[in-house]
Each structure stands twice: as structure tokens, then as C-alpha cells.
Design goal:
4-stranded antiparallel β-sheet, alpha+beta, 26% helix, elongated
């Protein structure tokens, strides 16, 4: 998005390539991207679905893939850009004033007038492009003589029935035939009134969201400032490290030179001492040698040249000396210990202690970031009259859990292994009995045509599918181990292996088509409270309830929202067509129903603690297709009989 604190549609850029939108496509979450950018996304889930690169909401695809997505028709340019656009029906380069939705071409004023008069184009839908910069478009009434699809009831289009009312219970426009048929008895209001309310509501929401842009821009500016300051800190620290290293090198080299000189001096001193000892020894040996040489010389001359009298005279003493030196001719070598260099060693931890190490500071570098906390708003329309009790009746059996909404004002419930249909008038009838031996089945969720259950076989959870049309039950061949399960809106099942922190998404035959994990689940969840329920909301968020917390994960395993209440015990979740999420809390015997957004933000309590009979306990809750909230309660008394059920129906649409 362009820089600045004010959003301008004309300068909105693709959220992927951040360039001008080219052949834009719109996803279910209303984020717009270039068609070629969406086609290049590597995080596209199985071929029939794509995850939004911005909010990670899922959008189902048809067989055409990305090409099957709706084109974004409102990417009109600003006045300055329009003045440079050439009319696509002539050579006029003036301001483009309209676009024909049937021809899909821009037109100038002259071509627009010609389009209105020509019989061939009379029935075409022409959109007037606002050139005043207020970002609105309008339909040319003169070109709307032929009724368009937008004005006709989609259910009775072949009968040319125009839309007259808006069914508040089903959140869809209807005609007079619809109000006499499947929408009979529903709360309705004039369609134009609904459109006016929607336009006003969207305008208010738009202004409110726009008011957040200056704050977000200030956060971006603050982040840029902090990033610059951080980069300067990194740069200065890098210089500091190098300077310290150079100083240490000089200090170490200087110290090494001093130690070297000291060792050499010591070596010279030891060598001088040892040389003196060796010199003294050499002199003693030399003197001993000369002593013997002189004695031998005198003896040889006496024997050769002396007479008998000289020989007899010298013989005693000479013989004594010769024999003495014969046995004592050597001198013992003194002990000399050679000086050796004993190498030293430097341990790495000593180097780290000398040089230092890079570590994180205990305090953050800055505390100047602004905390953004916005209280979410409810999607309820007539909340001043919300949750007034409409009906209340008792049944002679205990409802274990609600399976799904069966039709407009009836729900499908589970009683043991028997499925029953309960209507809002208090009547009921059997639907089908689930044959699973003595095993007790538990509902997982439902899709358009199927209902899923699980049961425990040999300490392992098994998944079953029930067709609402054929009433046939089929066991799915799931190859992975799971601890919790719920359905996704496109007829797939989401499985969770809690110990591994891994999600597995399977198709309606049990084959794994998508796998992703959560670090939080893998690392911490085994040490937290046990999971009571799991559900996928309309905005592709995985809500996981524990005793005191409600977690909202994306389909990449990222924790996006966490709500905690130490005084709660969350254990039931249901959602209506407008994204209101109802969570039941039964902590400390106080039963209440809390309202959350589909993103996991807490809004408030809709039914106060113990709104039901104090002697009953809330068993389950559900939303029917008329927009009514059903609560199922049973007796708290522990009796060996199934007991009874108390059903309360609250209207809030």
C-alpha cells in the first residue's frame, strides 16, 4: 500500500507484488490480488482451495482454479489517471465516464450516449464512473429497463420474480414466492431497507477502520525509526567488537613478547650454569689424564733406560701408584638437566572470558511501541431485542448432543446411538439408528450432505460418515492417529493429534490432503488443560477450547488469538451464519454463554450465569436456520435413567 496515513482506493497495490493491480481477482475474504500473483503462490493448499496471503482465510476454487475466481470490477482509477485513459470504443482521449458491464469496455461521454440510443445495446448494464474522486459508482437508470440478475430472485429467476424482502433469519434476499414457501414465518424486512442499513453499517465500519490507519502509519514510522536505531546499534557494536579484538591482540602480543624474553633470559642463565659445571668437569678429567700420562711416561723411561738400582729403588711406590690409577682412572660425570620448553595452552572459555560474548540485553531496546487493542464488535443486528426466550418445552429423553441443523426450525440430535429430529414446536421423530455395537458414538460435525461421528475401538478413535440423503453409514479408512476432530465447510474433516501438535485435513474418504503443525501444541499443550472441543469458523480459523482458554489458529498452525479466563470452563462451541461464535461456560456451577467473533475475540456474555434452571446442567447448544439459539439442559441428579431434557429457544435476529 502506498505511503501515507490515508487510504486511497486508486493507489491500492497488490498485497503480493506491491505493484499496480493487473487482472485483479477477489478472494472470499475480499482481499484483491493480481491473477498472476495468485497463480504463483506456493502456499496454495489442495487444488480446490487457496489461502489468502494476507489473512490466511481459505477460498474454495472450482475446476477452473484461479481463473474461476471473481474478477474485481471496482478497480477504477482516480480522476488524474482517467484523464489519460483512451476510450475503448473510439479514439477520444478525454475523461472516461462509464463502463459497459456486458461489453466490458470503458466509454467516453459521446460513446455512452450512443450506447443508450442503439437498439443493440439498449439492454446492457452501464456503470457510471464517478470522476469527482468520491469513489462511488452508479447505475444508469436509462439502461436498466431490462431486469438484471441482481434484481431478480435467484430461486425463482425463471418466473421473473423480483426481490422484494430480505429474510433476516436466513440472511438472503427473497421474493414473494419465497416468503410463502421455505421462508414462511421468518423475520423479514423490505429489501431496500436492508440495503440502506447495510450501506450505513458498512460506511460506519469503513470510517472506523479508516480511523485506524493513522495509528498504523505511526506504528510503521516508529518501527522504521527503531529499525534505523537498531541498525546503528549493530553497526557500532560491530566496530566495538573489532576494536576490542585489535586491542586484545596488541595486549596479547606484547605479553607474549615479554614472556618470550623472560624465558630466553632464564634459558641463558641455566645454560651458563650448566656450561660452568661442564667446564669444571672437563678440567678435572684433563688433569686426571695428564696425571696418568706423566706416570706412564716415567715408568716407560725407567724400564727402558734405568739401571737395576733405579728400578729397585722406584719399584714399590711406582707400583702402588700404577695400581691405584688403574682402578681409579675416571671421574664421575655430573648430572646435567637440559632446559626444555614446556608449551602452554589457552582454553576457549578463557578466550571468551578475555574477548567477551554477544548476548541479548535483559531489557528491550525500546518501550515506545504503541499497544493496539481494539474491542471487537458484534455481528448482531437487532441486539436490543436479542436473546428473548421464544419457546420452552421438555422432552421425555435426555439429549446427549446436537448433531446439526436439519431444516429451518428443526435440529438433528443424538440420543444414545439414535438420531432424532426435534422441531421448534416440541415434536420429534426418529431419523436413523447408528449400528456400532456397544460403542457410544460422538458427533464430529456436518457438511452439506454428510454427518461425521467418531467412536473408540481398541483405544483408537475411528471416523464414520453418515449420508443425510441415503442414511447410509460408512467407516472411513483414516491412516493417521488423532485425538480430536471437526468438519470444514468444504466437506473435509480436520483431525488433531494433540501429543504431536499436528493437524491433518482429510477428504470425505479419509485421505490426508493437508498437514501442518503448531509449535505451541507440540511444545506446550501437553502441559496445559485438556482440549474440550475444536471447531473451524467461517473465516478459516481453528478455535480450540480448553478449560480456561480459547485459542484461534490459522490453517498454517500459527496462533493468532488467545483468550484466557481463570474462572471459566469452556466446553461447547457453535456458530451462526453471520460469524457469531457462542461458547458455553460451566465453571463452578455457573452456566453462561459467551459471545466471540470468528477470530476468537471475546465480545461479552449473552446469557447470564444460571439463566437456566439451577437444578439443570447445560448439555449442548445450537443455532437453527431461522437464527434462533437452542439450549439443551438436563437434570444434575445422578440417576440410572436417561432422564429428561429441557429445551429453550432464544430469538436474536
Amino acid at each position: 500500500m502506498a505511503e501515507g496515513s490515508t487510504f486511497t482506493p486508486s493507489i491500492y497495490s497488490c498485497g503480493i507484488c506491491e505493484s499496480k493491480l493487473y487482472n485483479p481477482k477477489v478472494l472470499k475474504c475480499f482481499h484483491v490480488f493480481c491473477r498472476r500473483c495468485l497463480d504463483k503462490q506456493s502456499f496454495c493448499l489442495p487444488k480446490y482451495r487457496i489461502a489468502c496471503p494476507l489473512c490466511e482465510s481459505l477460498t474454495s476454487l472450482n475446476r477452473e482454479g484461479i481463473d474461476g475466481l471473481d474478477d474485481y470490477k471496482f478497480s477504477y482509477r482516480s480522476e488524474n489517471d482517467q484523464s489519460r485513459i483512451q476510450c475503448q470504443m473510439c479514439d477520444n482521449t478525454g475523461v472516461v465516464s462509464s463502463e459497459c458491464e456486458d461489453c466490458q469496455e470503458l466509454m467516453c461521454k459521446e460513446c455512452h450516449d450512443y450506447h443508450k440510443k442503439h437498439n443493440k445495446f439498449k439492454g446492457h448494464t452501464v456503470v457510471l464512473i464517478d470522476t469527482q474522486g468520491n469513489g462511488t459508482v452508479s447505475k444508469d437508470d436509462a439502461c436498466m429497463q431490462v431486469a438484471t440478475v441482481e434484481k431478480m430472485c435467484q430461486e425463482h429467476y425463471t418466473y421473473c420474480r423480483p426481490i422484494e424482502e430480505f429474510c433476516k433469519s436466513c440472511s438472503k434476499p427473497v421474493c414473494s414466492i419465497c416468503m410463502l414457501g421455505i421462508h414462511k414465518g421468518h423475520k423479514t424486512e423490505p429489501f431496500q431497507t436492508t440495503v440502506a442499513k447495510a450501506r450505513t453499517s458498512l460506511s460506519v465500519a469503513l470510517r472506523g477502520l479508516k480511523s485506524r490507519l493513522p495509528l498504523l502509519q505511526s506504528l510503521l514510522n516508529e518501527a522504521a525509526h527503531e529499525e534505523k536505531k537498531y541498525n546503528n546499534h549493530i553497526k557500532n557494536t560491530r566496530v566495538e567488537i573489532k576494536d576490542l579484538s585489535e586491542r586484545l591482540k596488541l595486549d596479547v602480543c606484547r605479553k607474549i613478547d615479554e614472556i618470550t624474553d623472560e624465558n630466553i633470559c632464564k634459558l641463558d642463565s641455566l645454560a651458563h650454569t650448566d656450561k660452568a659445571v661442564l667446564e669444571s668437569y672437563r678440567k678435572d678429567v684433563n688433569r686426571s689424564k695428564k696425571t696418568i700420562d706423566g706416570l706412564l711416561y716415567a715408568t716407560e723411561n725407567l724400564l727402558e733406560f734405568g739401571d737395576k738400582s733405579d728400578l729397585i729403588k722406584s719399584f714399590p711406590e711406582l707400583e702402588t701408584r700404577l695400581c691405584h690409577y688403574e682402578h681409579n682412572y675416571g671421574i664421575t660425570m655430573p648430572d646435567i638437566f637440559e632446559p626444555l620448553l614446556k608449551p602452554g595452552s589457552i582454553k576457549l572459555n578463557q578466550l571468551y572470558e578475555a574477548v567477551g560474548q554477544i548476548e541479548r540485553e535483559q531489557r528491550p531496546m525500546t518501550n515506545s511501541f504503541i499497544a493496539v487493542k481494539q474491542k471487537p464488535s458484534s455481528h448482531l443486528v437487532d441486539n436490543e431485542n436479542a436473546f428473548a426466550k421464544r419457546k420452552s418445552f421438555n422432552l421425555d429423553f435426555r439429549v446427549d448432543s446436537v448433531v446439526c441443523t436439519y431444516n429451518t426450525d428443526a435440529v438433528l440430535v443424538l440420543v444414545g446411538n439414535q438420531l432424532k429430529i426435534i422441531s421448534a414446536d416440541g415434536s420429534y421423530k426418529d431419523f436413523v439408528f447408528i449400528q456400532c455395537g456397544k460403542c457410544h458414538v460422538n458427533p464430529v460435525g456436518h457438511t452439506q450432505n454428510n454427518v461425521y461421528f467418531y467412536l473408540t475401538e481398541k483405544n483408537t478413535l475411528c471416523l464414520f460418515r453418515l449420508s443425510q440423503i441415503s442414511k447410509q453409514i460408512e467407516k472411513l479408512d483414516v491412516k493417521v492417529t488423532f485425538t480430536h476432530a471437526c468438519t470444514v465447510d468444504n466437506d473435509t474433516v480436520l483431525l488433531l493429534n494433540q501429543p504431536k501438535g499436528t493437524f491433518y485435513e482429510t477428504d470425505n474418504n479419509g485421505r490426508v490432503i493437508n498437514t501442518f503443525g503448531s509449535k505451541l501444541l507440540a511444545q506446550n499443550f501437553n502441559g496445559l488443560e485438556s482440549i474440550s472441543c475444536m471447531r473451524v469458523t467461517t473465516v478459516s480459523r481453528i478455535l480450540i477450547c480448553t478449560e480456561k482458554s480459547l485459542y484461534a489458529f490459522t490453517f498454517s498452525g500459527k496462533l493468532e488469538q488467545l483468550f484466557q479466563d481463570e474462572n471459566s470452563y469452556f466446553w461447547l462451541v457453535c456458530e451462526d451464519q453471520r460469524g457469531n461464535v457462542f461458547v458455553a461456560d460451566r465453571a463452578h456451577g455457573n452456566q453462561r454463554i459467551c459471545l466471540f467473533t470468528p477470530y476468537g475475540h471475546y465480545i461479552g456474555d449473552i446469557l447470564p450465569p444460571n439463566a437456566h434452571n439451577a437444578t439443570t446442567i447445560l448439555l449442548d447448544l445450537a443455532i437453527d436456520r431461522c437464527g434462533n439459539l437452542w439450549t439443551f439442559s438436563g437434570s444434575k441428579a445422578l440417576v440410572p435413567f436417561p432422564g429428561k431434557s429441557e429445551i429453550n429457544i432464544y430469538s436474536y435476529t
